[in-house]
Design brief:
Radius of gyration: 23 Å
CATH class of the largest domain: Mainly Alpha
Number of domains: 2
Strand order of the largest sheet: 1-2-3
Distance between the termini: 60 Å
Number of helices: 13
Oligomer: single chain
CATH architecture of the largest domain: Orthogonal Bundle
Largest sheet: 3 strands, antiparallel
Shape: globular
Strand content: under 5%
CATH superfamily of the largest domain: Intergrase catalytic core
Number of strands: 3
Order of helices and strands: HHHHHHHEEEHHHHHH
Amino acid sequence: MKVLISEFINYLSVERGLAKNTLSAYTRDLEQYVEFLKGRKVNDSNGITREHITSYMMDLKKHGMSATSICRHLAAMKMFHRFLVRENLAKEDPTTLVDTPKLFKRIPEVLTQKEIELILDVALKKAKDKRYKRDYVMIELFYASGMRVSELVDLKTTSINLEVGFVRAVGKGSKERIIPIGMKAREALAYYCEKVRPKLLKTAQTDTLFLSQQNKKLSRQSLWKIIKECARLAGIKKNIKPHTLRHTFATHLLEHGADLRSVQEMLGHADISTTQIYTHVDRERLKKVHKEFHPRA
């Protein structure tokens, strides 16, 4: 079974061009699935039944996994079994009649404009040495562009065009998109590239834009910790997650009149239904405004 998983992941990489993080997630999910099957004495893809699939999903639920995560596991299994049938590596697809768990769309928590300003103020005040100057620039660019965390830490020096004012992000499936950035981010990036990055670079040879103290690319976890720390020092009690600034970027654009298609393009969403979650955020804000200010609310 592990050999089949390896062939499937290779297919996703070569034929579908999926991102490394997505491939890693599929690999983890399918390896966990195979371990469950081994516990049921199932070692052949042709021995897997619909009952095995539903039992596995119930097992995930019993261990406290959220409906969203179970759906992700099921999506991986469905793709895997369709691949096996298509490649004549299995006779039937046991996931065909398995229903996806119902999901409630969760409204992502976002920061207010005031909270963003507080975080940036904290980052700027901390900028006493080159590392903290870098942190301020990263947060400024993160909010200005709405990139994914992985896209931001993967940026190269050639990814930015300060003269025109855009950044080129490489998203899921190695798809490139151009995102405009404002004057604040452009000024911060120009300063970083001219004054800060050369000191971090030292004698190293790399085109990675944002460098650690060891002249290497920052990890996603490091960026998340930087933002959480600045939010804590700013007195913000909200639960800051890796994509909080991305959610905030999209929400603030819609609040100020941006159209959904433009936001979809800047976020790099393949399907506009993914972007539509931010319209729920905006509706919630409008309901609060109506309740607070309408005389008969």
